[in-house]
TrEMBL record:
Record's keyword terms, sorted: Signal
Signal peptide: 1-20
Pfam families for this protein: BON
Organism, as annotated: Candidatus Manganitrophus noduliformans
Keyword presence, Isomerase: no
UniProt-recorded name of the protein: BON domain-containing protein
UniProt keyword Disulfide bond, yes or no: no
Domain BON residue range list: 32-100, 108-176
Length: 176
C-alpha cells in the first residue's frame, strides 16, 4: 500500500512540475515572438525602399506573417528577405499583395520632392542644373534643361532611387 501511495505522490509531483514548466515555455515563446516582430518592424522602417509603406508583421513560434500592400514584386521580395534575415525566424509567410497603394498625401509628396532636390544639389553632375521637381501621389516629374543625355539620365536615376517614388516622368530637355 505504501508503494502505491508513493507512486501516486510521485506521479502527482511530476504532473505538477510539468504543468508549472509549460506556461513558462509559452511565456518565453511569446517574448521571443514579440522581439522578432519588433526587430523586423525596425528593419523595415529603416529600409529606404520600404519605410513609407505599412507592412503588418506577426510572429508565432518563429513563423512570421507579412501582410499589406506594396507597389511592386521587388519590394514584396525585399520585405520577405529582411524578415527571413532576423534571428529566430524559422519561416516567412509572405501574404503581401502587389497592387494599388493608398495615395501618398501632400506632405509625403513634399518630402519626396525635397529629398530629390537635395540629392540633385549634392551630386556633382547635377548640382548646377536648373531642374524642377514635382511630386504628386508618388509620381515624380522632372522638368528643366540639362547639358547632356548623361545629366538627364543621372537626374532620373537619382529620382528613381529616392524612397517613396512610385514612378518618374523625365521631361528634361537637352540644350543643343
Amino acid at each position: 500500500m505504501r508503494t502505491v501511495y508513493y507512486a501516486l505522490l510521485m506521479a502527482l509531483c511530476i504532473g505538477v512540475i510539468g504543468c508549472a514548466a509549460h506556461p513558462k515555455k509559452g511565456a518565453e515563446e511569446r517574448a521571443d515572438d514579440t522581439a522578432i516582430t519588433s526587430r523586423i518592424r525596425a528593419k523595415l522602417a529603416n529600409d529606404a525602399t520600404l519605410h513609407l509603406f505599412r507592412i503588418n508583421v506577426d510572429s508565432r513560434q518563429g513563423i512570421v506573417t507579412l501582410s499589406g500592400t506594396l507597389p511592386s514584386e521587388d519590394r514584396k521580395r525585399r520585405a520577405a528577405e529582411i524578415a527571413a534575415g532576423v534571428a529566430g525566424v524559422r519561416q516567412v509567410e509572405n501574404l503581401l499583395r502587389v497592387g494599388q497603394m493608398r495615395r501618398p498625401d501632400r506632405f509625403e509628396d513634399a518630402v519626396i520632392a525635397s529629398k530629390i532636390t537635395s540629392r540633385l544639389i549634392q551630386n556633382p553632375m547635377t548640382h548646377a542644373l536648373a531642374i524642377d521637381v514635382e511630386a504628386e501621389k508618388g509620381k515624380v516629374i522632372l522638368s528643366g534643361r540639362v547639358q547632356s543625355e548623361r545629366e538627364k539620365k543621372e537626374a532620373e536615376r537619382i529620382a528613381r532611387n529616392t524612397s517613396g517614388v512610385l514612378s518618374v516622368e523625365n521631361q528634361l530637355e537637352i540644350l543643343e
